[in-house]
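Lecture notes, part 5. Sequence design as translation. It can be helpful to think of inverse folding as translation between two languages: the language of shapes and the language of residues. The source text, in structure tokens, appears below.
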């Protein structure tokens, strides 16, 4: 678990650093909210990240659960619902599709 916590903190720092540089118009932190679900990052970590976002940068974060306190800080929130997925038939995550 320590390795996962360290990796989550490194990923958060990496995203924050690249977002602050303004080098990119869009920064995507895929499944960062799942790191919150797993207690690898906190809601406060994500709040700090959102507040640090430069106005010209679009920050996209994905995950599975809703966090109303994060939604309040966001400009846009989308809720997607799975209708059908290969995992339902036992197909594990596929490189290039799911990660």
């Amino acid at each position: 678990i320590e390795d996962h916590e360290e990796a989550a903190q490194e990923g958060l720092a990496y995203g924050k650093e690249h977002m602050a540089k303004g080098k990119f118009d869009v920064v995507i932190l895929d499944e960062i909210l799942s790191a919150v679900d797993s207690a690898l990052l906190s809601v406060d970590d994500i709040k700090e990240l959102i507040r640090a976002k430069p106005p010209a940068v679009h920050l996209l974060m994905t995950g599975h659960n809703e966090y109303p306190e994060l939604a309040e800080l966001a400009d846009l929130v989308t809720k997607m619902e799975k209708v059908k997925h290969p995992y339902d038939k036992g197909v594990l995550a596929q490189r290039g599709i799911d990660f």
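The translated text above is only one of many valid answers, since several sequences can fold into similar shapes. Helices lie at 2-21, 32-37, 43-52, 68-73.
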